[in-house]
Design a protein that fits this description.
By secondary structure, the protein is an alpha+beta fold. It has helices at 7-24, 28-36, 45-54, 76-87, 102-112, 115-126, 248-284, 296-325, 329-360, 372-382, 389-409, 412-417; strands spanning 131-135, 152-156, 159-170, 177-185, 197-203, 209-214, 226-237, 241-242, 286-287, 290-291. Strand 2 and strand 3 form a beta hairpin. The protein is globular. The structure holds flavin-adenine dinucleotide.
Length: 418
């Protein structure tokens, strides 16, 4: 395993950093003012997107892009350090058409859409003309176990009819969100529980789709939304079924791996920024005759944060590398375990490192005058979104136990006995 950034990635990192420094950061204040006034996305967003695309900083995430599709054709390992850079400024990903949940949705469409579905939805997503959301979780069932999901889809002639309620659907309040990919129950109990769900492409403006509310995350209102959505007799053509009927879970597996790597690397970018802010603050703030940096406990927080960030980054890069290299089903299983591991590690990292930074900033750390309160809120949400920590730990533990059983069938335990 070699995680040295290639010359191509180094060049992209430099270009991306320079672009953000020169064109995106200067708009940060204006972005927040605009959103506070209810103008979202701000009027300059389209200009920034056009500029980023012209500079070749567009669709940096999708490895399998075809020659007529815009983007850099980077694999997960190559994209990871770029996601880290974008993550430092949470609204920056949109400038480069690399926002969640669009990246995962484009990946999904790229793998499973028919030519007609690609033309209608994937192409405008790749061109940054529309946004999308992925609607899986439901208020009425424990969505950690998606086999519980109850929203139904049934076929009536040449149409599909959807009924149900989803919530925390990220991105659905974005004015350019035109597509919901909805996970629905399509089969009965006679089927294996992993073959009972299907994905359906639902245009947001279909009659019967109601955006009930944008749910705040703690005190944070995301302008793109984490929405509750009701589907009442929503009718779409039969051709809006994505992939095969009953293949919802198999397809979701394909979508979630890279998407989680992107989340984790953005998280590491935010932790790097939190640590940099923490260090700056400790070098200038004085208490009891010393700067904060002179206190042993603060030095320990700084050192622990550096060790933890570097460990996490290496683990995420390994997961990205495994995902890229996977050839067999066994490789893919191993990659899924790694992705579960980083999902837990990154969430823990973010709440821990940002919490230390908030403590060092005193009351200011809880205010909107630094990005720390937002970073912490997002870190807290990461313990839940894309599956709670416990589910991912279970995946890692099961893998470990399977391995242990294999070893005990061999002679691994003999060493211990001796
Ligand atoms: C900011 C944010 C954005 C989100 N975006 C989206 C989105 O775009 N689309 C979407 O569909 N969903 C989204 N979600 C929803 C998220 O995926 C779910 O909240 C998550 O999967 C957990 O489901 P649940 O809330 O129903 O919790 P439940 O399933 O009710 O679980 C509750 C708790 O049970 C415990 N638990 C669960 N399983 C186990 C286990 N195996 N062992 C031990 N304990 C366990 C855990 O502590 C868990 O937190 C988002 C959530 C947040 C917070």
């Amino acid at each position: 395993m070699d995680f040295e950034y290639s010359p191509k990635v180094q060049a992209l990192r430099q270009n991306l950093e320079a672009f953000i420094e020169r064109f995106v950061l200067p708009y940060n204040g204006a972005w927040h003012r605009s959103v506070a006034q209810g103008v979202y996305p701000p009027p300059f967003m389209e200009d920034l997107k056009a500029l980023a695309r012209a500079e070749g900083l567009w669709n940096l995430f999708l490895p399998g892009l075809r020659s007529d599709e815009p983007g850099q054709r980077l694999n997960n390992l190559e994209y990871a350090p770029l996601a880290e850079i974008m993550g430092r400024l949470p609204w920056a990903s949109e400038v480069f058409n690399c926002s969640a949940p669009d990246t995962g949705n484009m990946e999904l469409l790229h793998l499973f859409a028919t030519p007609q579905q690609s033309q209608q939805w994937l192409r405008p997503l790749l061109d940054g003309e529309i946004r999308s959301a992925f609607a899986m979780s439901e208020p009425d069932v424990a969505s950690s176990d998606p086999t519980n999901l109850q929203t139904t889809v049934r076929q009536e002639g040449e149409q599909l009819v959807l009924n149900g309620r989803k919530w925390f659907i990220t991105g659905a309040a974005h004015p350019q969100c035109k597509l919901l990919i909805v996970m629905c129950r399509s089969g009965g109990n006679e089927l294996d529980k992993h073959d009972r769900h299907s994905m359906v492409l639902v245009p947001v403006d279909t009659p019967g789709v109601e955006l009930v509310r944008n749910i705040p995350i703690l005190q944070h209102h995301a302008p793109e939304g984490h929405c509750e959505i009701v589907f009442r007799n929503v009718r779409v053509p039969l051709t809006n079924l994505l992939g095969a009927q009953g293949a919802g879970f198999a397809m979701a597996q394909a979508r979630l791996g890279p998407g989680r790597i992107h989340h984790c690397m953005r998280s590491i970018g935010q932790c790097e920024l939190a640590l940099a802010l923490l260090c700056d603050r400790t070098l200038e703030r004085q208490v009891f005759g010393k700067i904060l940096a002179d206190f042993a406990n603060v030095q320990e927080w700084i050192a622990d944060s550096r060790l933890e960030i570097d460990q996490a980054r290496l683990l995420v890069l390994r997961a990205a590398w495994r995902l890229d290299q996977a050839q067999t089903e066994l490789d893919r299983q191993q990659a899924r375990v790694d992705v579960s591991a980083i999902k837990v590690v990154a969430a823990r990292l973010q709440t821990r490192v940002v919490d230390r930074a908030m403590q060092v900033f005193g009351a200011m750390g809880m205010s909107p005058d630094t990005p720390l309160a937002y970073f912490w809120t997002w870190g807290r949400a990461m313990h839940l979104m894309d599956g709670p920590d416990e589910v991912h730990l279970r995946t890692v533990a099961r893998h470990e136990l399977t391995h242990a059983k294999d070893v005990s069938r061999g002679n691994g335990r003999l060493l211990y006995a001796a």
